[in-house]
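Section 5.1 Outputs to date
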Amino acid sequence: MPHAISARSLTKKFGSREVLHGVDFAVEAGSVFGVIGPNGAGKTTTMRCLLDIIRPTSGEVRVLGEDPRAGGPELRRRIGYLPGELFLEGRVTGRKLLAHYQAISGPVAPGRVEALAERLGLDLDRHTRKLSKGNKQKLGLVQAFMHDPELLVLDEPTSGLDPLVQQEFHAMVRESQHKGQTIFLSSHVLSEVQQTADTVAILRDGRIMAVESVSGLREGAVRHLRLSARGITAHDAGALLGAVPGVGRVEVLESNSTVTLTATLEGDIQPLVRALGRLQLKDLVLEEPDLEESVLKMYSSPKEGE
């Protein structure tokens, strides 16, 4: 499948400070690609380089098959962009502001703006200066989606939105993907990205730590295990589980001839299943993979050279 976005050895310096260090990734056309990382990781800088808002110090970028530095207005009309910091003209209504954006972005289907506003619960006839942060974000989302662009670039798109509107946003993303559009979005919260993304890039201090499918992240994620068993001592139960590949943080408590054990599991579940077959289980709980914990481990691991 062709790439809607590709970046190779992307580097950006502001003066003597380098904020992107040879970033490499590719986004397949028609996919949802999420970039996660803490504030200051380089997510916004990467997006601005892709859109030619700022220019890379070195490296190569392609967006919809073109160099964004040479694509001009024709390329920009094929893209819907929601910046992380949205500044709106305050002396006009949302409806008039969107009409201005429509003149720039290109044709918008009749009724499209009104339909998006209704879905998000946005009053188009209020002046933008009177809008809350959440409603300003809704207005930004409408302008990004309204012309059905080939590519959506969304920087922290759920910022300021209440949970119900966030769910509506995720539905909009899925519908856009179903129509063949590509979505590139960022967040510092993994749970937001994993609801919609096919692939996730983990960015830390201007470097890509990993690029994984969401299913791949789940396979390598941390699971929490809790069990109770009879007919085995606390020492033997701890030794049995502690020897299973991927099992860690084993804690054992023995009471009234029952051993209660908690642990974590990373990776393949099959060795654990074989070990559990040797126990007289009373109770067993294996929780859903904790992707947040796995990603936080990447953030907290030492940097290269440390």
